[in-house]
């Protein structure tokens, strides 16, 4: 048994590190969370508004589609307004990639084999190098090259990996190495197997995603199963949850996936029961209200919301703040795992919000003091 690694231990796959703007991806950098805008990129105002909401939700990198010259013309204003790096999504027209690089994109999402001759690939690489752009190779099971479909008969893990390696070679032939790769599929098994194969074949950073995953609930489940499986085994350097939902929801789900695996924490981690007849208050509505009102909290911390005393005290001992349902509309509040005081039904939600905000401020102040002490010691 001594040869078995600890059951909670996630060992990251070693990978090269690249920079997407000022955000490191791969190596020992945190796993980043991405999303993609769905406004017309040519409408810079609407796109910037959506980017701002995604930034507030915690997005590290945001992708925008650039299908036409009107989009790349608007991109310069968008990249200047954004607080996070912008990836320009390019498919077939290499000139859009050149324009996007000049407009300030931090990364170009392309498939080098789809943009034409080697000379055109060379032009894109020159533009990327000149502007400090990374490149993301985006292989998708729904748009595999015809020769690979003829060779394998259908989209399969080997076909996706071969496509990715072919695109990688095109960049390497032009001495370009600042790239990351995705091999996405809407089928969870296909995507996971393809990423596992690619992880063994290359040391570049991997961008995880289950493409066309579905709506908020179905897509969250599929993405969590697929990406969660890969992340658990150390595969993945940056993720995007692809949902038929607002892009800020993709960001929130992405962080929830990372939080559940202990890979990265942001905001409040809520531990709550599904509720039953023993509950001393309406757990479901309480949790919904708290999640909505605490979305602005960025400081990592934990909150338990349990309806009765069966599991409530035990869970509360493991969280920063906890509340357990009691009788007669009075509920026990725990601070740092210790029983502290009671709160009445009517005041409960407002009271918990204030406690969480105060705890977040306390943690932030302690972190700032520690950082200042470290700076002074170094001086």
UniProtKB/TrEMBL annotation:
[4Fe-4S] cluster binds at residues 273, 276, 308, 315. The keyword Transferase does not apply. Residues 15-254 form the IspG TIM-barrel domain. It catalyses: (2E)-4-hydroxy-3-methylbut-2-enyl diphosphate + oxidized [flavodoxin] + H2O + 2 H(+) = 2-C-methyl-D-erythritol 2,4-cyclic diphosphate + reduced [flavodoxin]. InterPro entries: Dihydropteroate_synth-like_sf (IPR011005), IspG_bac (IPR016425), IspG_bac-typ (IPR004588), IspG_C (IPR058579), IspG_TIM (IPR058578), NO2/SO3_Rdtase_4Fe4S_sf (IPR045854). Binds 1 [4Fe-4S] cluster. Residues 270-357 form the IspG C-terminal domain. GO terms for biological process: isopentenyl diphosphate biosynthetic process, methylerythritol 4-phosphate pathway; terpenoid biosynthetic process. GO terms for molecular function: 4 iron, 4 sulfur cluster binding; 4-hydroxy-3-methylbut-2-en-1-yl diphosphate synthase activity (ferredoxin); 4-hydroxy-3-methylbut-2-enyl-diphosphate synthase activity (flavodoxin); iron ion binding. Pfam families: GcpE (PF04551), GcpE_C (PF26540). It is an enzyme of class 1 (oxidoreductase). Its EC number is 1.17.7.3. Transmembrane segments: none annotated. Its cofactor is [4Fe-4S] cluster. Keywords: 4Fe-4S, Iron, Iron-sulfur, Isoprene biosynthesis, Metal-binding, Oxidoreductase. Pathway: Isoprenoid biosynthesis; isopentenyl diphosphate biosynthesis via DXP pathway; isopentenyl diphosphate from 1-deoxy-D-xylulose 5-phosphate: step 5/6. Converts 2C-methyl-D-erythritol 2,4-cyclodiphosphate (ME-2,4cPP) into 1-hydroxy-2-methyl-2-(E)-butenyl 4-diphosphate. Belongs to the IspG family. This is 4-hydroxy-3-methylbut-2-en-1-yl diphosphate synthase (flavodoxin). It comes from Sphingomonas gellani.
């Amino acid at each position: 048994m001594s040869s078995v690694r600890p059951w909670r231990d996630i060992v990251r796959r070693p990978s090269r590190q690249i920079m997407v703007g000022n955000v490191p991806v791969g190596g020992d950098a945190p796993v980043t969370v991405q999303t993609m805008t769905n406004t017309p990129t040519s409408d810079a105002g609407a796109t910037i508004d959506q980017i701002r909401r995604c930034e507030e939700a915690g997005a590290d990198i945001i992708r925008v589609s650039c299908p036409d010259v009107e989009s790349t013309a608007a991109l310069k204003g968008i990249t200047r307004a954004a607080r996070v790096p912008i990836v320009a999504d390019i498919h077939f027209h290499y000139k859009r990639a050149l324009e996007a690089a000049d407009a300030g994109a931090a990364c170009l999402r392309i498939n080098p084999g789809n943009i034409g001759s080697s000379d055109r690939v060379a032009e894109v690489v020159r533009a990327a190098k000149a502007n400090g752009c990374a490149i993301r190779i985006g292989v998708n099971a729904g748009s595999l090259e015809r020769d690979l479909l003829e060779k394998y008969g259908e989209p399969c893990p080997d076909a996706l990996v071969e496509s990715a390696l072919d695109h990688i070679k095109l960049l390497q032939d032009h001495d370009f190495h600042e790239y990351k790769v995705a091999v996405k599929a809407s089928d969870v098994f296909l995507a996971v197997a393809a990423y596992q194969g690619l992880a063994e074949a290359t040391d570049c950073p991997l961008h995880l995603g289950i493409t066309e995953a579905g709506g908020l609930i179905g897509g969250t489940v599929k993405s969590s199963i697929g990406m969660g499986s890969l992340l658990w085994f150390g595969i993945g350097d940056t993720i995007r949850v692809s949902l038929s939902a607002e892009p800020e929801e993709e960001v929130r789900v992405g962080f929830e996936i990372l939080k559940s695996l202990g890979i990265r924490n942001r905001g409040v981690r809520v531990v709550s029961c599904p509720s039953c007849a023993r509950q001393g208050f309406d757990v479901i509505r309480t949790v919904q209200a708290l999640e909505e009102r605490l979305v602005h909290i960025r400081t990592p911390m934990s909150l338990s919301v349990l309806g009765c005393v069966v599991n409530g005290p035990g869970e509360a001992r493991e969280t920063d703040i906890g509340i357990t349902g009691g009788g007669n509309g009075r509920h026990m509040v725990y601070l740092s795992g210790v029983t502290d005081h009671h709160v009445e039904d009517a005041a409960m939600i407002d009271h918990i919000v204030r406690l969480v905000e105060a705890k977040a401020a306390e943690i932030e102040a302690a972190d700032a003091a520690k950082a200042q002490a470290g700076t002074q010691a170094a001086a």
